[in-house]
Write a structure and sequence with these properties.
Layout (H helix, E strand, L loop, with lengths): L5 E4 L14 H12 L3 E4 L5 H5 L2 H5 L7 E3 L4 E3 L5 E4 L4 H13 L3 E6 L2 E4 L4 H10 L3 E3 L6 H4 L4 E7 L6 H7 L6 E7 L2 E6 L4 H11 L7 E5 L5 H4 L4 E5 L4 H6 L2 E3 L6 H6 L5
Parallel strand pairs: 1-2, 1-12, 7-8, 12-13, 13-14
Antiparallel strand pairs: 3-4, 4-5, 6-7, 6-9, 9-11, 10-11
């Protein structure tokens, strides 16, 4: 038996330290929680392609497992069917890619299941390594934001710790049909205005037949705050970003110590 029937968990720096493999203790805790009757759903800003590469390391057999990606913009049911997909406003993608380029920030476009960048930098290579998804580099002269003929799932603006302060100014700028959010200290994301982990969590809770009182969420970053506010028991990771910590009722040890797994075992009877 479990005391909370449904757990939503961010991936990077919550379930696992960003760039690391899933730990054995974490894998066993998730398996034990599910065996006791709990449902464990990953809710991440990662792309669908990036997350699907990791599912087997989390669950072993990931068949029948629903998940949430692209900051809640895409929701995939247990049968692999996409039950919700929101796309980012093209005019906003064009505008903010121009702003990022003018200010010297690398930026990445998530489109058609791929990641595209116009410049190769230490930040883009680090991003590719952490997400496990290769980047296709295109010439800036192609004006990718203007010429790509498909939809954009999101756009990332990437900085170093040294250039991070300038992202705050961009984050405060108005947008049209999209919104800006920090998913990490050096990651500013442009996502559909209707996306957000909180709305996705509420959607999945109802779809799976649970109530808010049945739910727990784990997160570490500002983009996790609305998810934490949407569940019965919100838990942030020690050392996380301010918005997440403010939204939490409990603080777990960090991902480097497999703190999510330690807390998850408290819900198994």
């Amino acid at each position: 038996m479990v005391t909370y029937k449904l757990v939503f968990c961010d991936f990077d720096d919550t379930l696992v330290r960003s760039g690391d493999a899933v730990g054995d203790y974490t894998r066993r805790a998730i398996a034990d929680y599910r065996a006791a009757g709990g449902t464990f759903v990953i809710c991440t800003g990662r792309s669908r392609a990036s997350l699907e590469k990791e599912l087997h390391s989390v669950y072993g057999d990931a068949s029948g497992i629903p998940y949430i990606c692209f900051q809640g913009g895409t929701i995939v049911d247990g049968d692999g069917k996409v039950i919700r997909r929101l796309v980012t406003d093209r005019a906003d993608v064009v505008r903010f890619s121009d702003i990022a380029a003018e200010r010297g920030y690398a930026h990445a476009f998530h489109a058609g299941g791929e990641v595209y960048c116009e410049t190769k930098t230490a930040e883009t290579e680090d991003y590719a390594q952490k997400t496990g998804c290769p980047i296709t580099y295109v010439s800036p002269s192609e004006h990718f934001a203007r010429t790509y003929d498909g939809d954009f799932d999101k756009m990332m603006i990437l900085s170093s710790l040294q250039t991070r302060p300038g992202l705050d100014e961009i984050a405060a700028m108005p947008s049209g049909g999209s919104k800006l959010m920090f998913s990490g200290p050096t990651y500013l994301e442009l996502v559909p205005s209707g996306s957000g982990k909180g709305g996705a969590v509420a959607f999945m809770t109802k779809r799976l037949g649970f109530t808010r009182a049945d739910t727990v969420a784990f997160g570490d970053a500002n983009n996790d705050a609305d998810m934490l506010r949407s569940v019965g028991l919100p838990i942030a990771m020690r050392g996380g970003m301010k918005d997440a910590l403010d939204a939490a009722k409990l603080i777990a040890p960090p991902a480097s110590e497999e703190g999510m797994a330690f807390a998850l075992r408290m819900f198994i009877r």
